[in-house]
Amino acid sequence: xxxxxxxxxxxxxxxxxxxxxxxxxxxxxxxxxxxxxxxxxxxxxxxxxxxxxxxxxxxxxxxxxxxxxxxxxxxxxxxxxxxxxxxxxxxxxxxxxxxxxxxxxxxxxxxxxxxxxxxxxxxxxxxxxxxxxxxxxxxxxxxxxxxxxxxxxxxxxxxxxxxxxxxxxxxxxxxxxxxxxxxxxxxxxxxxxxxxxxxxxxxxxxxxxxxxxxxxxxxxxxxxxxxxxxxxxxxxxxxxxxxxxxxxxx
Length: 250
Hints:
single chain; nucleotide-binding; 6 helices; UDP-N-acetylmuramoyl-L-alanine:D-glutamate ligase; PfkB_dom; ATP-binding
């Protein structure tokens, strides 16, 4: 049977920066201690769309700047380290008039982070893409993906991340981001609820590699063993959507 309207929507459209990650050739070391690095596809908001194992980018190619580089490691103490090479990178130069509006309007879910809010013109492109997706009835999924070294200041990061907070339907934050945004060192339901908004469908707080705390209309606690960060968001998106919904990259 033919369908129309929202029933035709079958895409997860992800908006964000494209990266090439460089990871150490050995595990459990700091960036300074790494003997060498291997390049790998980045795993951020703009990298998260796959269909049939093939990443697809729908926003075109920027020839005025290069793809950003990120050196990433997970140290033996469980802490991550990042070093970025951009300023500018291609994603920072995206303009509102370059948006693929047809693709955005076809999204069942529109997923984004906060790094594209750091500078213009990408910030305006990000905000316009959100408006278009929301008007088209997409579920808005937000993972702030805080990377403080990229922001001019912590205050600017907090202001911009929270400025679009109320627009989302689903938000995933880490325990570190919860502490940063609330100013509280308590990682509990009461603290998480200060970030809750009446229009939210789901607010999730991940706690490292052990488990997570979920908030769904009211406080609920789940045990998510070894499912964190980007993997968590990807699994969640697939859980919330029908099996025939496939992800795409903007």
